[in-house]
Amino acid sequence: MTRTEHRPAAETHFGALLTTVFFLNFLVALDMSLVNIALPKIQADLGFTPSALQWVVTSYLLTYAGFMLLGGRIGDLWGRRNVIIAGLVVFAAASLLGGFALSSGMLIAARALQGVAGALLAPASLALVTTVTDPARHKKAMGLWAGAGAAGGAVGVVLSGLLTEWFSWRAVLLVNVPIVLIALLGAIRGVRPDRGESTGRLDVAGAFLVTAGVGALVYAVSSAGDHGWASPRFTVGGVAAAVLLVGFAIVERKAPHPLMPPTLMKRRNILGANAFGFMLAAGQLAAFYFASLYVQTVWNVDPGIAGTLFLPFCVAAFIGIVVGNKLAATIGTRMTMVLMGLLTGLGLFLFSQIPAEFDFWLGILLPSAVTAIGLGGSMVQVGVAATKGVPPAEVGIASGVANSSRQLGGTIGLAVLVTIASHFTVPREGYSTGFAVGALFLVVGSLLAWLILPRDRADSSTTAPE
Question: Is the pTM of the predicted complex or chain greater than 0.85?
Fold first, then answer.
């Protein structure tokens, strides 16, 4: 039988464990948006062509999404403390490589390596939360995990603008190093050594197929954003993704130690959480992407000021976590996720109504507050539902699936919205339409959550089976 050593968080090291959980999820979320406002400076300094510049972002997304399931499984097999330390060291090394990059190829390689490290860290951050057995502390840890993910993307935009204007685009990469050091110290002190599974093996064939398949899918939809849905790149990438992922499904049904047990997605809470998380991330990335472009190109705001305009988003995200937890205690995870998802969609719709002239109150503060409160409250419940009832030996896998679905949702959703926006000759109209369609994503995600997720006891006196 598979034997895994799972110990609850030590009482005296709970603060260090919380630090680790927060900074791990914050770090990987931060680097999804950290280079956005710095891209024009990077292009000018390293001589990127317009078509090649997208790879500064895409290379991170490709490896991050592609290796996510593998990263979760490695944590289960080799011990999460070992994987966290290794992932942090690799992330720091990749950040230094990117910060001192001398060519476009060197920077792209560094960003891809960051994505690999992120794929090790993201599942581990959520898996660590499950080691906290005290209900009150578990709630606190889950709130910090969700807050780190929600705030990381917004803070990334803020830092991208400020660091680029005050120092250089290179500071955008180098700022990761002190964050890694804080997380590393927290992990050494707060995460107990664990031996992982004593008899389990890594599903090499499954790992290759899912990594290559997800990578091909992300490549296909990223290409569609730049070259159109009828482009040969999208067609080749889409066909390759379909073949590889079907092959992965076949291998997983027969593998003695599957990378993703086929029974995992039969749980309604896991299926519903991942469907909702997919749509939530699609809208979230759309908000950051289109808002940063709108502020700089329509309102003509400087990068440093553009970044600071997103500070209300960070504050409101943490308010959303508090609100979401209180709602969940009253109406349950399922209905809280639905309501918070709809609130996020309302915020995106308000973004679609941004005036053509600078207006902080109606153009930024109001839509940011509504979107971020919904986003923060939603992410807590996604984390709860995605790992509820999962055996300890499969927590890393479930965490990897949850993170991978969010990453895929963000990448695919953004590619769809960018393609839609590109059909408008007036950029402002394209951005507004992108926001509106992003709001529709959240409505669909909320509907899926309502239909798929089982009722919990706060919803009804009868609990539906999972």
Answer: no
